[in-house]
Every structure is written in C-alpha cells, then in structure tokens.
Design brief:
7 helices; mainly alpha
C-alpha cells in the first residue's frame, strides 16, 4: 500500500506561538524532573519551523489539556511561556520565590505518572514539595519514569 498524502511532520506544522509554548512547558517540567517527550522529539520541535501555512495546525495543537484555554481558566493555569508569569499569579503569601508554585503544581499533578513513586509518596503538594522536586532534579536524581 502506498500512501500519497500531502502532509508534513508535526514539528513543521507548528507556528512560533505553539512551538514556544511546547518548548517552555517541557523545559519548565524538566526543572522538576518530569520529562514528557524524548530528547530527539524535543529537539525536533524546538528546531522545527512552519514549512507552509497550509500545514498549520489550527486550534489546540496538542493533547496537553493545559493548552486548551477552557482548562487553563478552570485550573487558573498560567503557562511557562507567559512573560511576567509570576506577576499574574496571586498566591496569598509574601514569599516572592514561590509565585509560580500554583501553576507549577497544576502541571505536576497532571503529570504525576512521570515522577517516581518515591517522589510522589514523599511530596507535599505545596511550595515545599516543589522545592523537593527541584532539589532531586538538580542533584541528578534519576527519575525512573523519564523518557530518554
């Protein structure tokens, strides 16, 4: 069977906004030890370009529900690509170092399957829990659920 379809690779169907969103979200997740796409796929998306407007994916370009504006509003989620992201989040304390914790926790809870059982079991779902994940990730603690 020979397919003769005029389609393009996924990474060449994303406009700059969708590409930037995807890259920023993945990089932000990786800070916490969560890797949702393989290294090669990430690089393909990061380095891709919209080859022709006729291939542009319209609407929500991914299965990630946090790209959907309805879910962003429902979860009060501010994406990692948002300039001045921390300024949009009201977190109820005076600690300026954890201003993105609310949105980061939303992302992490939706991706718990990418964390080790040990991390999930020992994590508190607050800024201290985020700091624990950051510490594990920065020490190179191997996340068994990550994708190579």
């Amino acid at each position: 069977m020979e397919l003769d379809e005029d389609i393009e690779l996924y990474q060449n169907c994303l406009d700059a906004d969708d590409r930037n969103w995807t890259v920023a979200e993945e990089l932000n997740s990786r800070k916490f030890g969560i890797q949702t796409v393989m290294k090669e796929t990430f690089e393909d998306i990061r380095d891709g370009h919209l080859s022709d407007d006729k291939y542009h994916l319209e609407g929500v370009h991914t299965y990630d529900i946090l790209r959907n504006p309805i879910y962003q509003q429902a979860f009060q989620y501010y994406s990692a690509d948002l300039i001045g992201r921390k300024d949009y989040i009201v977190d109820g304390d005076d600690d300026d170092t954890n201003d993105t914790a609310q949105s980061d926790l939303v992302r992490i809870v939706l991706n718990l399957a990418f964390l080790t059982k040990e991390d999930v079991t020992h994590m508190s779902f607050d800024p201290a829990g985020l700091n624990m994940l950051l510490e594990h990730a920065s020490k190179g603690t191997k996340n068994k659920a990550s994708i190579n």
